[in-house]
Automatic annotation (TrEMBL):
Name recorded for this polypeptide: Methionyl-tRNA formyltransferase
Catalysis performed (reactions): L-methionyl-tRNA(fMet) + (6R)-10-formyltetrahydrofolate = N-formyl-L-methionyl-tRNA(fMet) + (6S)-5,6,7,8-tetrahydrofolate + H(+)
Species annotation: Undibacterium seohonense
Gene Ontology terms, MF aspect: methionyl-tRNA formyltransferase activity
Domain Formyl transferase C-terminal: 214-314
Coiled-coil stretches: none
Annotated residues for binding of (6S)-5,6,7,8-tetrahydrofolate: S117, L118, L119, P120
Protein keywords: Protein biosynthesis, Transferase
Alphabetical list of InterPro entries matching this protein: Fmt, Formyl_trans_C, Formyl_transf_N, Formyl_transf_N_sf, Formyl_transferase-like_C_sf, GART_AS, Met-tRNA-FMT_C, Met-tRNA-FMT_N
Domain Formyl transferase N-terminal: residue ranges: 1-188
Protein purpose: Attaches a formyl group to the free amino group of methionyl-tRNA(fMet). The formyl group appears to play a dual role in the initiator identity of N-formylmethionyl-tRNA by promoting its recognition by IF2 and preventing the misappropriation of this tRNA by the elongation apparatus.
Principal EC category: transferase
Family affiliation: Belongs to the Fmt family.
Amino acid sequence: MKVIFAGTPEFAATALKAIIDAGFEVPLVLTQPDRPAGRGMLMHASAVKQLALAHQIPVAQPVSLRLNGKYPEIAQEAHELLHNTPHDIMVVAAYGLILPLSCLTIPRLGCINIHGSLLPRWRGAAPIHRAIEAGDTETGITIMQMEEGLDTGPMLLRRAVTIDAHDTTASLHDRLATLGGDMVVDVLRQFAQSDVTPLSAVTQPEEGVCYAAKISKEEAAIDFRASAQVIDRRVRAFNPFPAAHANIDGTTIKFWRAEVANGDSKSPSGGIIEASGQQGVLISCDNGKSVLRVLELQKPGGKRLPAQEFLQGFPLKAGQVFQS
């Protein structure tokens, strides 16, 4: 069985590796064009491209697949490549480009998608971030048959995982990526055995639909008027990107790890109650109704450090006030 794969980040690369390791033939990989990254802003290949090249798999990087879009000639070339590459099915995972109907109908067995949520909750670009931010206690992976709508297709396989109290987007991402790879291999094996859609496709319910909007850097500015519970979830949701942060005396400090502390405070929102190696940095939230304990911080140009080490090089004291 021949599988074309479309994906870009590490989440997708984990699935591609699982497909390769399972012995499926991958005649072509689609991924986003190389992007500038790092301090030197050098061109950087996606995780999927790097993996594909390491396995000597041909790679295509069209900027668009829409025949009626901004780049019709590039899209037409991509369509011709898909038509001319013998394959049975396409697997899509965090690709980053919209697949129009003209692409979805090319594979003999259609296109299936690995989505990082329990659909229909958290359709869209950032399901892992949004699940943590919202305080969900579970999420999972859904393998679905793709259609024109945004993550609206019928579900082929769905498995849940618990969101732990200290999970970040980074830790949850890794667990879901591994799960997604295992699940898509299971689905592909069933396709290979039956040579038709082997699973009972379940239509997504209309109730419970949520949209996981793309994360913006502006969202990561901490508003200490919110409760410590809400801020803790945002710190975890925005780790590793775009990193929750706040300003103090003109310096932007990133918060990498925090937790809700007991008690309340008479300090204003954002006010430092205590800053010590033993207690971390205690900050008043929601006008003193709750307290956040920050345990890992980073100053501009510095490393992520536990609070005790951070305070040795960047002292903070009670009475100072963080601003969003």
